[in-house]
Design a protein that fits this description.
With 235 residues, this protein is α/β, with parallel strands linked by helices. Helices cover 54% and strands 11% of the residues. The longest helix has 24 residues.
Length: 235
């Protein structure tokens, strides 16, 4: 992607309710500079992975400052911890190399500061997802170790983008984290810890229509009935 592509991409971006940007984009400075020029044309956006770079942050801050009197962009950032440390360093916030080295309130403080300065909801992926927005921190506990594989974050970004198209940044971040984790939990019940992103994606529609919970309840009920029958036979 280069600046020559920008005129072609502007109407495409303008036609979208939400843009998901970053996964697989790369870190080429020319590409990032070109992408930064598109930010004024975004209605809403999920910014993830390779797009969590100074060029994009500069453009976001500049846009927010020049449009302070109008409605700000609805933005969700979806970094894993190492992407968060890179983002934090842009704002002069020094974080250790491992999330385990941080106290919960230190992580919350960093995420809240980034959220305030970028005017965005910050969804920090991890064993417990952390969502910081407008001075409030929430946690999501769905998900499992089998989801620690490349591509899972792309699924989360896509889910969050779909939700953001019709909802606020805070609601999309919280619900996106829950839905992705719930889909991963359902996939893990079938396939164990050896998951690929497609396994999670297959379960997403079932989470939205409640089939994951109903299936689990039915299986639990069926198991109880079997157990009761066995007890009756024994007696």
């Amino acid at each position: 992607m280069s600046e020559q592509d920008v005129p072609m991409l502007i109407p495409l971006v303008q036609s979208c309710d939400c843009v998901v940007f970053g996964p697989g984009f790369g870190s080429n400075p020319e590409s990032l500079s070109a992408a930064a020029q598109l930010i004024p044309y975004f209605k809403k956006a999920v910014i993830d992975a390779d797009a969590l770079r100074p060029e994009i942050f500069d453009a976001l801050i500049q846009f927010n400052q020049s449009n302070a009197s109008s409605k700000p962009l609805e933005i969700v950032l979806t970094p894993h911890y190492h992407e968060l440390t890179r983002t934090a360093s842009y704002f002069g916030i020094n974080l250790p190399g491992s999330r385990k080295e941080l106290l919960p309130d230190e992580l919350e403080s960093a995420a809240l500061e980034i959220s305030e300065k970028l005017g965005a909801a910050v969804l920090v992926k991890g064993r417990e997802d952390l969502i910081a927005n407008a001075g409030i921190v929430r946690y999501n506990a769905t998900g499992n170790a089998g989801m620690s594989v490349g591509g899972t974050g792309d699924v989360l970004a896509g889910i969050t983008g779909g939700l953001l198209a019709k909802n606020s940044a805070a609601a999309a971040a919280c619900c996106g984290a829950y839905v992705c984790g719930k889909a991963g939990d359902s996939a893990s019940e079938e396939k164990g810890d050896s998951l690929i992103p497609a396994d999670i994606l297959d379960k997403v529609p079932l989470v939205f229509i409640g089939e994951v919970d109903s299936k689990t309840k039915k299986e639990a009920k069926k198991g109880n009935e079997k157990g009761n029958k066995k007890e009756i036979k024994k007696t």
